[in-house]
């Protein structure tokens, strides 16, 4: 009967109930929807980081990360390949790359860029570039003069498809190596910085330009489940000698993203707490009002023999219903808002420069993490009931005679 | 056999620095099955005495015994149990729980006592039939007249077979005809179920129904009539 009385009591003053329910609804909606947007931002930061030539795990020659010069290339990629075929799960994919800092120039402009030599077929399964070419065509295996550049770089260099682009770097002998390529494709990326930074040629073309043999700068690995990264990396470390190779996961390769992810985790829960604090005052106020309006009634209940704890339960039942109703509608609205943005996302192109600085995409898509939904609902329900204990105890402490004499 | 024994019961209320002597040493014995009116003018101490007998308030001194239990030494929790299992209350107003129907109001005390649902329903419908509210099971207090509400309150007070029913000016908010009907019904319940009724009043008609009349004046028993 506590639940029955609680349910009926909240509808004695429908306007007040609707007002506080609206506060709970907005709070839960804000927790779920804005939480999903924050998760979406962090998720896309990770995805961007991973697909922008990082992968889940990378293997480098020891020292390459500190000093990414051609001399620090993996001199025996077949050793790494043998280890990969032994350790990697069946669905995992990997590729080798040649990667050097270079100067790109044409008749009008010159500027720094990272020259990436790729295996077109393998690379397409691992990084964004396979699907990113919007003009011209993607590289073909054996293409020795084709180069793919980003739209932003093409704009900056005032160049287009079919035009020449000269790449210059240092070869294995320490001499200047240069090669003229013809632009065969232009790609678009999530971030403009990526379009400006990377130019792609085949590994064969890069090796010829840099006078490399079979060497590679890095091996990038993409797993089907990123959660396996640590486990697989550990297994590779066990096989590849640490004095020759560095094996790192995306968390180590993208320290800024990893740090931002940790901060976001805290932000989301802090966000939940801040919303709840605002909501909590409303809940306490509403329940207190409901209690003080019914002082005589609580006096009657106690006179009839109802014990204080039973009165606490009755008042908490009212709070429970207010919270549950608010949570149901708030969750529904939150999921509807998320669903509405699933395909289109929120386009923040106008702020793209600032966003890119933070490693964020131009379009934010909400991302639902079940633990966030559960946490948001638990915060509202448990803390909501906890703050309701105060008015409930107030109600339970009225003495029957005084309460019934109250006017 | 005395069901209520009050010996030298005193009660002082403090209003700021002023002390109000509500009861100045009441001595009263009430036998089981009685139908007793506590009469007296407003402020004489009737309601205070009823509240102390019912364990709703504590006396400053003296002793109050209910069915052999000294209630002025009991804790709040024990008093709550005593009220729940041994005493039925009918108040002047705000007597029923507004969100419960007549039937649920009558069932409420039995629910607190842990009576099984089927038994509760059976006893509640029987008693409501007895007080003439057969057609009002599902009505909430706001849908009942003042007289009907008091009938539901009497039904609730006696449904769990208490030792005594305490009624504080039960007819004060009713017109004379409805008040008379209520008194008839209470006396019928008293005779039929042998439940002791103690009620406070300053209404002549109500006094006429009592088999024993106790006059309270200035916090003392001033007179008694059988």
- CATH topology group of chain B: Rossmann fold
- What sequence of helices (H) and strands (E) makes up the elements of chain B? EEEHEEHEHHHEHEHEE
Order of strands side by side in the largest beta sheet of chain B?
Answer: 6-7-8-3-9-10
Count of alpha/pi helices of chain A: 15
The helix fraction of chain A, in percent, is 40-55%
What is the total tally of β strands of chain A? 12
Unreliable segments of chain B (pLDDT under 50, ≥5 consecutive)?
none
Order of helices and strands of chain A: HHEHEEHEEHEEHEHEHEHHHHEHEHH
Strand content of chain B: 25-35%
Task: Tell me the name of the CATH class of chain B.
Answer: Alpha Beta
Question: Could you give the order of strands across the largest sheet of chain A?
Answer: 2-3-8-5-7-6
Termini gap of chain B? 17 Å
For the CA atoms, what is the radius of gyration of chain A? 31 Å
In brief:
Chain A has 407 residues and is α+β, with helices and mostly antiparallel strands. Chain A is built from 15 helices and 12 strands.
What does this protein structure show overall?
The complex is a heterodimer of chains A (407) and B (226). Chain A is of the alpha+beta class. Chain A has helices spanning 2-10, 14-51, 77-87, 120-124, 151-156, 192-197, 203-210, 229-239, 250-253, 255-293, 295-303, 308-340, 352-357, 370-397, 400-405; strands at 57-61, 93-105, 110-118, 133-136, 146-150, 164-170, 176-187, 198-202, 218-222, 245-249, 346-347, 363-364. Chain A has a six-stranded mixed β-barrel with strand order 2-3-8-5-7-6. Chain A starts with a helix and ends with a helix. The mean pLDDT of chain A is 90. With 226 residues, chain B is of the alpha/beta class. Chain B has one domain: 3-Layer(aba) Sandwich (Rossmann fold). Helices cover 36% and strands 30% of the residues of chain B. Chain B contains seven helices and ten strands. The longest helix of chain B has 18 residues, at 176-193. Chain B is globular and about 50 Å long. Chains A and B meet through helix 1, helix 11 and helix 15 of A and helix 2 and helix 3 of B.
